[in-house]
Amino acid sequence: MRINISLTTFLSTVQATSLLVPLYLDPSQGVQDGSMAAWNPILTAVANSPNTQFQIILNPNNGPGNSKAGYDSEYITSVAKLNAYPNVHTFGYVHTSYGARSSASVQTDIARWANWNTYTKANIAIKGIFFDEVPNSSKKGNTDVAYMSALQTYAKSQFGNITTFQTFYNVGDLCAHTEYFNNMADYVCIFEDEASKFSTAVLGSRLPAGKAAKSCVLLIDYMSSGFPSANVSSMLQYFVSLGIGSANILDYDYDQANAVGAPADVGSVARILSSS
């Protein structure tokens, strides 16, 4: 796939595109020496691209994992390292199972994430909630919106001391509910899929007029897409030219968000966004 971007389009850019990083691996995952080096590529990218805003989703165990602030000592140490950088905004992962999960269960996860902000021995503050599997049925408009509206209100009440608190709604597709964009989420993910399924036409069909800054695009498994390596840069520049608020391209899946050496490793993506 080739993406051609005109100078006129570039000049229409109104804001920087943030880098959304689904950091769904443990700090020591895959590390043989027992160190917490699995997050080092992320930390290096953050340090090397200070002009890129990193929106990092934490997900110890399909959510906060337990009621302990910080989950465990590895997370406490590693999240504190992330939070030492001013260009990092941390989000706690919460799934809603497309609205099938009880509001009480979702609220428990939200409250557990908020509890991280009470920890005083290190800065492990969580500054937002990433709602995954958000209900998005055109046939259940009022039900979906009411469900998410209640969760949004609850989340804001739990994080009232965080002035920069934000929420993501991951619908991953054409959003059926304009309310998500207009009155509720800070960002709505309108594409979350394999890179091979991406096209400018698909994105254009899902991008609401005037809502690019609140839209999120997440491509995974780029290495299996068949696209040339050079397209990583042109894709990211295209997102920036549209004014997309948040985006990322992953070489593999979420468990390998720390992969290095491939065309869409986190350091390369951050550098491209910084220079676009």
Automatic annotation (TrEMBL):
What are the record keywords, sorted? Signal
Q: Which InterPro entries match?
A: Spherulin4
Give a single Pfam family match.
Spherulin4
Signal peptide feature range: 1-16
Q: Does the keyword Signal apply?
A: yes
Q: What is this protein called?
A: Spherulin-4
| Higher taxonomy | Eukaryota, Fungi, Dikarya, Ascomycota, Pezizomycotina
